[in-house]
Amino acid sequence: MMSAVRTLPVAVIGMGCRLPGGADLESFWKLVRRGDNAFATLPAERLNRELHYDSCKGIPGKSYTDLGALISYDDVGEMQRLYPALATCSEPSFLLLSKVAVAAWENAGLDSHAVSQAISGVYIGHTRNSGISGDLTYATCVAEMANYLNDVPEFTRHIGGRTKAAIGEIVAECRRGYPQRDQQGGPLLNAHQAAWNVARCLGLDGPTMAFNAACASSLQALAQGVRALQLGTIDQALVGGGTYLHSDTLRVFSQAQSVSATGSRPFDAGADGLVVGEGCVIFLLKRLDRALKDKNKIHAVIRGVGIASDGKGKSLWAPRREGQIEAVRRAYHDDLRIEELGYLEAHATSTQLGDATELDALAEAFSSRLPTKKK
Question: What pTM, to 2 d.p., does this model score?
Answer without folding.
Answer: 0.89
